[in-house]
Design brief:
It is built from 9 helices and 18 strands. By secondary structure, it is of the alpha+beta class. The strands form 3 sheets. Strands 1, 2, 3, 4, 5, 6, 8, 9, 15 and 18 form a 10-stranded mixed sheet that branches. Helix 2 packs parallel to helix 6 and helix 3 runs parallel beside helix 4.
Length: about 325
């Protein structure tokens, strides 16, 4: 039975652990705290809501508060999702295998929710959290030679990608996702100095190796990054492979053409681009790295994934395993 505000009967069998970033959406999430908490209690009978206080806090909260069978929802953008996922995973896999991850969109880029097909309206997103489709998905992993590690659920990148993320985070994101990322991408292409980097990989595309100047690299577990760049068109989060695109040095004019191909999911049409699918990729070089839109420091590093490591809930109307 649905109510006037678009809700159905509350989820009575699962507990919602809502980890909310008050700075998401330019501070709109914090300003709407009471509304968010009321909507969550209408969607779920059992609710725990915790608000982050600093960068990295969402990871600590996920580790400390998750219980078996919880629906763990990250309210915020892609960075908040990344923090929560890193709290749900340990060195080898999920800390609590029966937990289910989802997201309530409230950020600038909003790219991960595109792959989950979650609507932007608060009440609708909570309805998906309460009643949506749950599947096991792959989770990406980055391991640096220094010993540092990081999980990613959406897209990791190297090179100019990391600098774009730095610019976007410094901008205050006041122009919205698409324009903020566009300006950051063009400014980065103008200023970034491509570095010759060696890449070695193995997986569905076989084994390979290339050494070349690289402007950027996309390592996609899901489909979108950069406020709508379709960098994982040919894969899914449940296919046991990362979709990788290496982008050569570009002029500003060439970058505009590359952006068109990226938004239409045709990165192979970028002159000089290298595309392959792999489950292990070694980057032998010092390109800066980002995971789910957050800069993490330079390589060398290994990208890999854990197959079916995490349960994720989305709004899919058909199986999200192919396009």
């Amino acid at each position: 039975m649905r109510t006037d505000d678009g809700h159905g009967a509350r989820n009575r069998s699962e507990r919602l652990l809502l980890i909310a970033n008050p700075r998401a959406g330019g501070g709109r999430a914090g300003a709407r705290r009471a509304q968010i908490e009321a909507a969550a209690t209408r969607a779920f009978e059992q609710v725990e809501i915790v608000w982050t206080e600093a960068p990295g806090h969402a990871t600590e909260l996920a580790r400390a508060r998750v219980r078996p069978g919880d629906v763990v929802a990250a309210l915020g953008g892609d960075g908040t999702c990344n923090e929560v996922v890193n709290g749900l995973m340990d060195d080898t896999g999920p800390r609590e295998p029966s937990a289910i991850f989802t997201t309530i969109p409230f950020g600038t880029g909003g790219d991960f929710v595109r792959s989950l097909e979650i609507p932007s309206r608060l009440e609708d997103a909570l309805w998906v959290a309460a009643t949506g489709t749950t599947v096991h998905v792959d989770v990406g992993h980055v391991a640096w030679e220094s010993g540092a590690t990081r999980w990613f659920i959406n897209v990791a990148g190297a090179g100019a990608n990391a600098e774009v993320c730095e610019r976007v985070n410094r901008s205050g994101k006041r122009w919205g996702g698409t324009l903020t990322f566009l300006c950051a991408i063009l400014a980065t292409v103008r200023d970034f100095k491509p570095l010759t980097t060696q890449w070695r990989w193995q997986g569905p595309s076989g084994t390979g190796e290339v050494e070349a100047p690289a402007l950027a690299a996309f390592v996609a577990n899901a489909h979108y990054c950069g406020a709508g760049l379709w960098v994982g068109r040919d894969g899914s989060m449940a296919d046991g492979a990362l979709d990788v695109t290496l982008i050569p040095p570009l002029t500003l004019v060439q970058a505009l053409g590359a952006l068109f191909h990226a938004r239409t999911g045709r990165l192979e049409n970028i002159p000089g681009a290298i595309r392959f699918r792999a489950d292990t990729i070694d980057m032998v070089g010092v390109l800066p790295i980002e995971t789910d839109g957050e800069p993490r420091g330079p390589g060398p590093a290994r990208f890999s994934l854990r197959r079916g490591a995490l349960q994720v809930r989305g709004a899919w109307l058909r199986p999200p395993f192919s396009n």
